[in-house]
Amino acid sequence: EYAEISLKDIDQLAKTSFPLCMRHQFDKLKEDHHLKHGGRMQLGLFLKGVGLNLDDALAFWRAEFSKKVGLEKFEKEYAYTIRHNYGKEGKRTDYTPYSCYKIISSTPGAGDHHGCPYRHFSEENLRAALSRMGVNSRATEDVMNKVRNRHYQLACTLTFEALHGVPCDAGINHPNQYFSDSQKILH
Ligand code: SF4
């Protein structure tokens, strides 16, 4: 159902086409070589949705986690969850990627990097993240206005429009929709 993406393209795709929630977790994973459970679920299912196959997903998480916890611990404690996300363990449910609604309603705790940055970041951290993404200062003020009015998905839509230079009339309802709309524009 999904077109496959290749592991070697993932850094580039993260920069051009991941929404801020996924970009943040991706960057933190690369920085800390670790993500807590909520992040592994949210980012892992998103990556499955963008078309990373199970073998590539295992390689991706292994490359980061093994730098922190070692290869053996990765295989013992973490590989299971990844196979589980792909429906290869446990009840063999084929889990679907989380919608914006579900992510915005989540309650990340200290040290968690999942959730929606428009909802869960402080104003200062959100401004810094938008600036790193390349959103200009005028668009940033428009985004912050939406955030103040608790219109988080509209804030994400404005970010998408600022970065792609085209309107997104349907609005952003799902991180994987952000990704596929972005890819459609860029290709
Ligand atoms: Fe992610 Fe949706 Fe929040 Fe955008 S609005 S950052 S896609 S959860």
Explain how this protein is built.
With 187 residues, the chain is mostly helical. It has two domains: 7-85, no CATH class; 100-186, no CATH class. 66% of the residues lie in helices and 0% in strands. It has eleven helices and no strands. Helix 9 (137-148) runs antiparallel to helix 10. The chain starts with 9 loop residues before the first helix and ends with a helix. Bound molecules: iron/sulfur cluster. Iron/sulfur cluster binds at residues 19-21, 100, 103-104, 116-118, 152-153, 156, 172, 175, 178. Residues 19-21, 100, 103-104, 116-118, 152-153, 156, 172, 175, 178 line the site of iron/sulfur cluster.
